[in-house]
Amino acid sequence: MYLKQIEITGFKSFADKTRLQFEPGMIAIVGPNGCGKSNVSDAIRWVLGEQRPTALRCAKMPDVVFNGTDNRKPLGMAEVSITFADCEGVLDTEFNEVTITRRVFRSGEGQYFINKNLCRLKDVHRLFMGTGIGTTSYSVMAQGQIDAILSSKPEDRRAVFEEAAGITKFKADRKEALRKIDQTEANLLRLADVIREVKRQIGTLQRQAGKAQKYRELRDELRGLDIFLTRRRLAALDIRIRELDTSIHALGEQLVAHQEFVAEAEAESSHIHALIHETEARIAELTEQAAQADNRFIRAQEVIKVNEQRIAEYRAWAERDNREISETRTQIEQLKMQIESLEQKRLLTRQAADVERGKLEEAQARFDAHKVRIDQTRQQLQQDRQRSVECERRSAQIQQALAEMEARQREVLMKRDRLSAEHRQVEEALAVADQNRMEVKSRLDRFQADSERVGERLETLEEERSSVAAEMKSVQEEAARMQSEASAKRAQIELLTDKRESSDEFAAGTQQMLDPENPLGLAPQAVLGALADQLNAPSDLRLALEAALRAWLDAVVVRDAASARQALAALFAQGQHAAARIVAAEGGSGGRRTPPPGLVCLLDQVQVAEAFAPAAERLLGSVFLAERLEDVPEVIPEGCSVVTRGGVIVHGDGCAELWMPDSQVSSPLARRLLVADTGEQLAALEERLGTHRRRLEQLNARVGELGVLVNQTRQERDENRRKAAQAEGEYQTVSRDTDRARVRLSAVATELGSISALTAGDDERCGALSGELQALTVLRGELLERTAELSTTLQELESVYGELSHALTECRIQVSSLMQQLEHATAQRESVQTRIDELERTIQGRNRGVMSYDESIERLTVEIKTLEANLEPMRIAAEALHMKIEETRRERAARQRELEKTDATLTERRRALDRARDEKSKAEVDITESRMRRQNQIDHIYNEYGLSADELVAHADPVWENGEQPPVPQIEARVAQLTADIQALGPVNLVAIEEYKELEERYTFLKAQEQDLLKSKEQILELIAMINKKSGEMFQTTFEQANANFETMFTKLFNGGQAKLVLLENVDDPLECGIDIIARPPGKRPQSVTLLSGGERTMTAVSLLFAIFMIKPAPFCMLDELDAALDDSNIGRFVQALKDFLTQSQFLIITHNQHTIAGSDIVYGVTQQEKGISKIVSMRLKEIGVKELSMGAPVSAPTVEEEHVKRKRKKKAEQETADEAQDS
User: Fold this and answer.
1) For the whole model, what pTM was predicted?
2) Cβ burial, residue 457 (10 Å; 0-12/13-18/19+)
3) Bridge partners of 627?
4) How far is CA 1033 from CA 72, 162, 1029, 1063, in A?
């Protein structure tokens, strides 16, 4: 791998985009001082991730951005990219070329890229770890850095050897592992707190969960019993509802008959009422006419009397109005005289108000002028007071500063004494801590070994328990599935049995014949039972058997034909709607027929009761069974039938039928067969369930045993881990205490050395502050005297201000009073004038009234004369109308007597109708109440248990003790007891069970997490130990090789002498010890490198650098003026040594030395044609010839002259190149 290219943009003096292309070999970068040669070295260090601005000769990182010149503006960004070629074998990458780019903006933001992909600085460091490339490695040697290797502390020299040994990556992994250990310890502490809290919560929830579990058990039992009782109640209510429905229907028919009778009586009564209404209408009409005639006669008399009274009233009113007119005219004259008096008073008041208003304006002017003077005085006083407060505040600050300086001096003295005592105490504590750490370390190793041994045994037991638990879970799930299936089968059997006993399956006559109470009075043993009970067949023959017996599926089997006739006669004698199919077991003709070829007789495939065998021969003897419809022969014997297993039946007469019911329970026979099949399946399930339960008991016992062993082993392991963790914590605590003691000892020593500088300069500052305090005191006294004088003046002005204000107020009051008097006089004048106008309008009204009274008197006199002439004719007409009314009333009385008789009959019929309605209403109320009770029962079950009506019917009965159902009163008593027990529990937290399970699972999860963390910590410690061991071995091997190589290279470069590397301090721990360099140039005694001359130090450092290159050569090496201190004799050996490594590494050398330039393959010259802007000039030197390349950033290297040119031309070219380099 080698450095192929550098591209610089805006970095320091490289303002323009500049590209330098390299090839394997030795490249020299030359140029005058200050032209920017070292900026190339800085660019390489910077792009590799250098974070120290001082290492790049900057104050802060944004300083690397081009800062501008007199003719150029500053740039906002700097960017450097370096490209490495042939990277597959060295870097952990699949790319042949890798480009690293770093970009920084003047605002401070920075970015890194690998092959133009954004990345982190950590990724760049990780990429080059162990390759010798880095900001602190031996591949980039800046000015003075080679000497810094010799001058640095022994422990600081380790970095170069660690990079050569390839353990840099291991150290980074070790640092990351230590950081993870700290995080793991912090996580363990937090996890322990969480586990304690969860364990405490588990204890609380365990009691609540037990209470909730008991509540659920009682609730489940109550639920089963409540549902069972509800189903019984619903069945009783259904029977009651059907009875009431029948009764309501009969009462409805009776109610219709009564309503017809009532309608007839109401029609007759309505006719009589109509006649009476007509008579009453005539009476009313005559009565109204008579009343009108009477009213006209009486009204005429009253009108005459009233008119006479009104005439008298009009005359009195006219006299009264005349008197009021005279009095009003007198009042008008008096009011006019009052107006004249008020007008004179108003004029006098206006003149007095004008005089007082002039006095008010003069007083206001004097008041305003005095107020301005007061404001000026008050403002001056406020300014003086503020200056006085400011002086006082500054005095307080100075006094506080003096007090602080005095306190600081006392504190410094006390701190010096305290630090001296602390220094002695820390030294003593450090010795004790070292001894304690060794003891704790021994105990920790012993506990960790015991914990590992018990942990292995625990893992074996837990694996066995897990396998047993998994098997037990599988068996439990299978048992639960079978239990659920068995419950479903039982519910199905119960449902089928209930339906079989209901009345929907058989006709009414059939039900009476099958009734055990024998309501028909048949002979004993006459009825053998339902036909469905006499047959049994496999499930695959169910459809075939039903198809063959479809007409007789609900028939009743009797002993003989006589019993059949007796049953029919009994049903007929009842005279009610009834139907029944009857089959006689004995008697009759017909028998078994021979089946056609390929068919079998259906009767041979069916099991028949012995008593029913003759009847079965008659019904099924001529029915043959075919497997499929295709097997049915085309010709069937007459009187025979062929049925298939799928339910198709073909008769000999050519008729055919298909029996495919829409449900399994399509007939009593299908139901009985289904009950039998379901019972067999239930028995098989219960047998398998018993086997699973026995296996569960065995597995449960084994799980208990394993649980005890696991708990015991886990306790033992936890105890060992606890002891190990405690010991480890003690060890870490002791180690931290030891480290802190060492750090504190160093800090105390440093503080003791620097404490005297804390009080320097306090005396001079104290004197200056004291002088300022005295000046402020004098100024504050002067301000206080002037403030007192201004206060006295202000008091006098405010006194005069009060007198002027009082006088101004009096003037304002006087003017206001006169204005009010003027307004009052004006208002009085207007009021009197308004009263005069009202009185004049009153006189006009009274005059008009007198004139209307005279006209009314004349009109009433004429009306009285007219009425007196019409009184006698009115009296005669009224008497005739009264006689006609009496005759009509006698006619109405006769019809009312007839109506009373009709109403009596109607009343009796209505009572009968009301009785019928009451009975029907009562029945309807009863049926509504029954339906409500039924719905309440359904709602109760739905609200309590969430079951619908269909789910309630299909719900299985409770599992009774001993398989026998207890009496209903006992069940109801148990329900009451369960309800009381549930109420006695009080408030129950039903969520506690789930919360308890969740906390248990969380506790288990947290414990597992704790174990994972502990295991992770152990693995990290093992990794650190492995890293330490591997790193130590690699470092020791590298150090021994470097020591041998260093001695060889030193002898080669110095032409003699000796040198060696020595491990210092803790030699047994090579990862912590320092490295010292011992050198003896030829003719001198062995001495430390710090005593060598500059050239000897450079040659020694170069020997060390080449010694490391012999072990692990870096892909490239950047040397910045490394040869500056070498003379001509040493520079030749240095250049020759470099050339020896050209097959392994690529060298970039910033130099001024001609011999180094001459030995280079390519030369880049750095110039500043424009002041402050660096430019690149490139040349390639070969064994012969020199050719100048283009300026700037070349795309490709120029061609090389051929190798057959003469030696003389080669020397001339070398000399010219050296001269040009010096001139540039």
Assistant:
1) 0.36
2) middle
3) none
4) 56, 11, 6, 14
